[in-house]
Structures are given as C-alpha cells and as structure tokens.
Write a structure and sequence with these properties.
There is one protein chain. The chain is mainly alpha-helical. The chain is built from 28 helices and no strands. It folds into 2 domains: 213 residues, no CATH class; 156 residues, no CATH class.
Length: 494
C-alpha cells in the first residue's frame, strides 16, 4: 500500500501543477463564451475575474478527492499493458513504470475531469453553469498540442458543446455486429442525426476562432479537429469549416497546409464550391510538403471532381520532387474513367518521362491498357520494353508471361511489335523457360514463320464491369448484359 500511496501522491502533485498551468492558459482568452444551457430559475452569473475562475476550479479539483481517484484508476487500467495488469498489486510491482509516465497519466486525468464538469454543465434537467466556466477554461488550456488526448478527447468535447449534449449521451457509435456478444438481431436502434444547438455552436465557434489565431501547434490541432468534424456533415455548415480551411490554406506553416490537404476530399463532398476554392489555394503553394500531400490525395480527388483533377495531375507530373512524381504517376489509371483515349495518350507521354520512377509505375496500369487496346496501336508496350530500366523490364516480363497464359493472341501481337522495334526478347524467353520449358522454343518457331501459334485465346474474357464510354464517364446505355437464366446455367455447369 505504501507504493500505491507514493504513486497517488506523486500524480496528485503533478496534476495540481498541470491544472494550474492549464487554467492560466485558458483564461488568457477573455471573455469566455456563454453556457449553451441555462436554467431559467437560476440565471448564470458570469465570472467576475480570471483569478476567480482559477480559484474555483482549482479548489473544486483539490476538494473532490473521490473523483480524482476514480479517474486515476480508470486511466491506469487503460495505460497499463495487459500482461502487467494481471498482477494483483499493480502499484507495488509497477511503481517505476507509472512514475516514468506521469505526463501521460496526468493528461488523461485532467481531460476526464474536464468531461465530468462539462457533463454537469450540459445536463438538460439541471445545467450547472458554474462548472461550464471551469470546463471551458480547462478545455481551452489543455488544447495545446496536435497529438494524444487533445485530438480525440478534444474533438469529443467540442462536438458535445456544438450539440449541447452531455458527452456520450447520444447514439453516435457503430451498431453491434454478430461478432459481438451484445448483438441482438431483433433490436432496432433509432438513427438520430446530430442537431446543432445555437448557443452550443457559438461556444464551439469561439473555441475554433481562438485556435485559428493561436500559435502553430494549436493551428495543427485545429486541422485535426476539422478532419474529424468533416465526418459530421450536420456540423460542417454551422461551424463554418469551409472558410476556416480557406484561411488555413494560406497559413505560413507548411506543416499546417500539408495536413489540411487530407481534409479536401470530404470538404468537396460537403461544400463543392468552397472545397474548390481551398483546392486552388493549396495547388498554388510551392512548398514541398503541400505538394506531396496533394499528390497523395489525387486519387480521392479524381473520384470527386473528375475532369477538374486532370490539370492537377499534369502540373504535378512536371515536379522535380521524386516523391511527388511517384505518387502522381501511380494515379494515371484514374484518367481512364474520364476518357480512355486521353488515358492511353497520357501513358504514351509518360513512357518518355526522364524520371525512371514514373516509368516504373506505368507498368501497373499496362494490364488495363492491353485489355482496352489489345492491338496497342500506340506501341506503348514496345516503348516500355526498350526502356532499358531493369525494374521496368522485370515487371513487364511478368505481365507478358501472364498474358501468354490467359490471352495468347494479344501476347503474340505484343511480342511481334517488340520484335519489329528491334527489341531483344531473350530475357523474356529465359524467364519463361524456367516456368514452361517447352513454350519459348515454340514461340520462337512461330516468330520465324515455321510453325503455327503454340496457343490461341479460346474466348475473350469479358469484364464484370459495365462498359465505359470512350470519351466520358457515362456508361453505355445500349450495352448488352447477360441474361439471368444464362448466368444460372453457367453456374450449374461449372
């Protein structure tokens, strides 16, 4: 028990110190926002001074020893690894382990205290406005860094404020599934959309505004909150997330702007016009972190803005940064959903790109290219074969060997084009001989005109997807689909 008391005393002392620091930081943004919920019989009395808030909050925190012990025990259960929690005397055996992690434990205890105060202030039956001033001050002081509890618990607190509901009191978690013990197949859970509260939105906007005008770590935290809030479409407009992102897009910090890029796809879904404005600002930034982040989300942008993402692709493929080139060239396959002709032309252009990373990434999309253009009128396969890069050669050999197995007709056409372009096929034959010793000699005889093709394609494989129009993303309306009876007969015969 002595070890337990030593741990509690050390953590209590550290918690008191961190509580004072957080409250002092929190009251710097004065005046504080009004409480979302008010009892008409007991109108709120705003705090008279900053010192009064600190005195009341610190006094309550020190006085409520039971609450502190409860939060401390809950936190220790969470942070202690499972193998360590099996011991009967956790404090005695792992005292040093806990004391080395005082900052982690204290942070969780203070956020749990803030949530407890906030829950009392957002109680519909009897809101405690005095605890509101303490909770919002403590929350403002604790939200300092873009990591840990400040992100996830901070978002949870901010969301509760925006809808003026006690934390955890609304149904916003995933339904139980058949793999979980609490699953009930007969249960029907009501689906409630989040409803913003006018005064709660005002308080949440106060918090977001203070974060926007704060130092860089707090602005990074704001971006993390925005990324989570974009999953709550009911709160995007009330919290004016689009305009806040527009301001952050011009931030002097490339860390802030690069992280903001991850929010773009969701913002475009929620507010297309503002999302395109933010995209334009971020696209005009020249810092490398922002360019790399934009290249990483290019595939997601293609799915949301279609043709308007092509200029982004064309701009980024001319970058001098290899990371940007690697991420951008990997998305060339997305152009086929816009225009198959434009997609094929873009592949042809990239086969001449001076950076080998770009040419290597093209091989992944050549399988779809061969399926769409089996005759390879552009000579892309021959150009890739003659590239000379060993990585391109290895990937292309694997593609050709697989093509020979499933579609010999197209394979024969491809190797003929490569041979006509003075391409050396010896490495292909060497690899093929290791897997199918009889095939290389048969194909060589066919190329000399001394024998028929070793194999032909018995039937052309059909794509399970609906046909795509040649120029555009609309599916062909007159495409012939198989009848259900024919499909069932095929299954019965297989």
């Amino acid at each position: 028990m002595r070890a337990k008391q030593r741990v509690i005393n050390a953590l209590r002392q550290q918690s008191n110190l961190e509580m004072i620091n957080a409250l002092e930081r929190g009251v710097q943004d004065w005046p504080l926002p009004a409480p979302p919920l008010i009892d008409p019989d007991f109108p709120p009395i705003p705090p008279s001074s900053k010192e009064k808030i600190i005195e009341q909050a610190l006094g309550l925190f020190k006085l409520d020893e039971g609450m502190f012990i409860h939060h401390l025990n809950s936190t220790i259960e969470l942070v202690i690894p499972y193998r360590m929690s099996l011991s009967e005397e956790v404090f005695e055996e792992h005292e040093k382990w806990l004391l080395r992690r005082k900052d982690l434990v204290v942070e969780r205890v203070l956020f749990a205290t803030c949530i407890t105060w906030l829950a009392d202030s957002l109680d519909n039956s009897m809101p405690n406005t005095d605890k509101w001033w303490m909770a919002i001050t403590l929350f403002n002081g604790l939200s300092t860094s873009p990591r840990g509890q400040s992100i996830h618990q901070g978002f949870h607190i901010l969301e509760s404020i925006a809808i003026a509901t006690k934390p955890g009191a609304w149904h916003s978690q995933a339904e139980s599934g058949p793999h979980q013990m609490e699953w009930d197949p007969q249960a029907s859970l009501p689906k409630y959309d989040l409803v913003s509260h006018e005064q709660g939105i005002a308080a949440a906007n106060w918090m977001l505004d203070k974060s926007l005008r704060s130092k860089e770590p707090r602005r990074q935290l704001l971006v993390e909150w925005i990324l989570l809030f974009l999953e709550r479409k009911e709160l995007v407009s009330p919290l004016d997330l689009g305009n806040r992102m527009l301001k952050l897009a011009n931030d002097e910090s490339d860390i802030v702007s690069s992280r903001l890029v991850a929010c773009l796809p969701r913002l475009i879904e929620a507010d297309y016009a503002v999302g395109m404005e933010v995209l334009e600002v971020l696209n005009n930034r020249q810092d490398i972190p922002s360019r790399r982040a934009l290249a990483d989300v290019l595939t997601r942008l293609f799915k949301r803005i279609n043709e308007e993402a092509v200029p982004l692709f064309e701009k980024m493929i001319q970058s001098n940064d290899e990371t940007v080139l690697a991420a951008t060239s990997a998305t060339v396959g997305d152009i086929k959903y816009i225009s198959k002709t434009r997609w094929a032309d873009e592949i042809l252009n990239l086969t001449k790109h001076p950076n080998p990373i770009v040419r290597r990434n093209l091989v992944a999309t050549l399988r779809d290219y061969v399926a769409a253009f089996p005759k390879d009128e552009r000579g892309i396969l021959a150009a890739a074969w003659l590239d000379g890069d060993e990585v391109v050669g290895v990937r292309l050999r694997e593609l050709l060997i697989r093509m020979e197995e499933v579609d010999p007709d197209n394979f024969s056409s491809c190797i003929t084009k490569i041979n006509d372009a003075d391409g050396n096929l010896e490495k292909l034959w060497e690899v093929m001989e290791l897997r199918h010793p009889e095939k290389p000699s048969a194909w060589k005889l066919w190329m000399k005109g001394e024998s028929p093709p070793p194999a032909t394609t018995p039937f052309k494989p059909t794509s399970p997807e609906r046909p795509i129009a040649e120029d555009g993303d609309q599916y062909l309306e007159d495409a012939e689909l198989p009848k259900l009876s024919d499909a069932l007969d095929n299954l019965d015969n297989s």
